[in-house]
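Hey, can you fold this?
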Amino acid sequence: MVLPASPNQISLKDIAEEKLGSSAGSGQYFEDISLKGLSVDSIDDFGFYNGDTLIGPIDYPGTPNSAAPYAMSEFHGYAASLWPASAPGSITTNETFIMDMTADEDLGGDVTACTVLNMSLNTTNRTLSWFFGNDADRSFNDAGDSTESTKNTNSNTISYNGPITSLEARMVYTNLSHAYSGGGNGFTSASYAGRSWAAHNQFAHMDGSSIVNNGDNAASFVQKTKLSGTDSVATRTPLSGSYGYKTMRTTTGNCSIGMFATSEEVGSTFEYSSASIGPTASGSSIYWQIRANGSELLTIYNKTNGAGEVLVASTLNSPTT
């Protein structure tokens, strides 16, 4: 909603309701509404009672003018955005591993490499925390030593304004390079070929263990779409499209959306399976977005083309000594 334009009258309660994102209902009321708090971020705006339960005092980011002197008239025509100007935050740790993980298996087992946007919603505090999980899962070298790797980014927390009645997420990708192989000593086989996937989980975080057996099995509540299409041994034309908007949770808890490369388990020596996908070609990119209440759109992160940046799942049944 939008506050009335001048010369219509507005009150502190009107401004508080706009920032809260809803009117006070039966048994609800505001307490200690601060004009300075409404006008200046990082200062509490008001307390809010839901029955006998005090919520706050809370600072709701967003203001038409943070400079003194503060005036209610500055809020004429004001509309609070759900996502504050400071969102979504920044990545300072392990950014280079986003869409750049390799799961390399030398004992013939299936492996998964993935990048996942993992999110945590807290409807009491009105925060959404997120990080990218970058995982290479179940890989071993020919000596039997684990080569698994997890390179998660730092976490960022967004304090949002107003209630979330719907939350969706999507990935949009352009010119992703992707290739698949499989076979054995002197032959190729589509049934051995690795695969690529887009997936989401409305109720939990995901990692490399969320999709296994070359995508034939997945953890509870994981929903997935095969990006590689019909199994084959081939380097495909660049992949462009989108995955989403996919429904995320609106209650407190975790949810996620991401991309996966998987390989097939192979049984005999020198048999192999692999898949790769990523924004490594010129003009390629992938970005993650979330959308609240059907219209409040926020881009979390955009990964543009980088030399050699791909998810790789590679299995080889190597001879052992």
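Oh, and this one too while you're at it.
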Amino acid sequence: MVLWLDNASTYKPLLDFYESCPYEVVRLPKNHGHTAPWTFLADVFATGPYVVTDPDLDLSEVPAWSHRKGLICSVLPRLCSLPHSIR
């Protein structure tokens, strides 16, 4: 499942993207800051593992392998083996 949580964006190209985005977009009427995902999507997170990211981060210096599906798939089994750890 991919879900976009928009924190009251006003950037026109992003808003245009949402119109054709193949994923569910939840648009908040005001900016609730960095805690918005946990405040508004707690029920979604309760269903299993999830990844939260900020799409306007500059990842140009980050190796390509680290922000692709491969990283998540390689880390997830280890996280699941530690069910009581705080992540």
